[in-house]
Amino acid sequence: MIESDRNPIPGCFLGTIGDYVVYLYRGKRCIRRKPSKVKPPSAPGQVAQQERMASIAIFYQALKEVGIYDFWRQATEGMMLHGYNLLVQRNLPAFGGDGRICDFSKLQLTAGAVALPDGLRVREEAEGVWRVEWEGTPLQANASPEDRLRLYVMKDRETFAVKAPECGDARRGDGTATFRLPEGQEAYLHLYVAFVSRNGKECSENKYFKLLKTKCYGKI
After folding, report:
1. Per-residue confidence at 212, pLDDT binned at 50, 70, 90?
2. What does the buried/exposed string (b/e) look like for 148-167 if buried means 16 or more CB atoms within 10 Å of the residue's CB?
3. Which residue, 1, 70, 190, 194, is the most exposed by fewest CB within 10 angstroms?
4. Beta bridge pairs of residue 32
5. Contact (Cβ atoms closer than 8 angstroms) between residue 109 and residue 70
6. How far apart, in whole angstroms, are the C-alpha atoms of residue 171 and residue 152?
7. Backbone phi, psi, residue 34, to 5°
8. In this structure, are residues 152 and 63 in contact, taking their beta carbons and an 8 Å threshold?
9. Interval 150-183: pLDDT, tens
10. What is the pLDDT of residues 32-59, one digit of tens each?
C-alpha cells in the first residue's frame, strides 16, 4: 500500500487505475495493487495424477541409476515417442493416487523386443539362495541362446530404489541360474526377470515374481 501525505481535496480521483486501486483511509489517499487471482484448488483426481507423475519421475531416476533406462530409449528408436513417455504410459497404472506403488506386478522396469523364454519360474533352493528356471525354445523369434539373464529387485511401496543382484554370466541357453540377495538387500523381495541381447543394447520386457520365503528346500 502506498500513502500520499497530501490532504484529499474535493473531486480528487478515487477508484481503479489499471492494476491499482485509489481509496481514502483515515483521511489519506492510498494506492494498492489489486489482489492477484487465486487459482482454485485442484480437484482430487488432478491431485492424484500429480502425485503419480511425481513418483514416476523418481522411479525414472532409479532406473537411470541402475542402467535400465537406456533400454526404454532403444525401444522407442524410430518411433514418434520418447522413451520417457513410453515409461510413463506403461507404469502409470502401478501407482496409486498417494504416489506410492499400489501393484508391483504392473511395474515395467524394462522394455524391448527381445523375447522372454517360456516357463519362467523362481524358487528358493536353499537359505537365501534362489533359482530361476525357464524352458528352451530353439525357434523362438527375437531370441538367441546367447541372450543374457538380468535380474532386478525392489523393496516396498515407498522405496523406489532398484538393485541388480549378480547372476553370473547366465544365458538363455543355460535354462537355469541361481542368485543370492546381497547383505542389506534381504528385504528386496519384488523380483523382475528380463533378458538382454548379446550386444547389451536391446532388452525384453520383464516378468514379475514375489520372492516368498519357504521352510522346505528340497527339490520341487
Report:
1. confident
2. bbbbbbbbebeebbbbebeb
3. 1
4. 21
5. no
6. 16
7. -65, 145
8. no
9. 999 999 888 889 999 999 999 999 999 999 998 8
10. 666 666 566 568 788 899 999 999 999 9
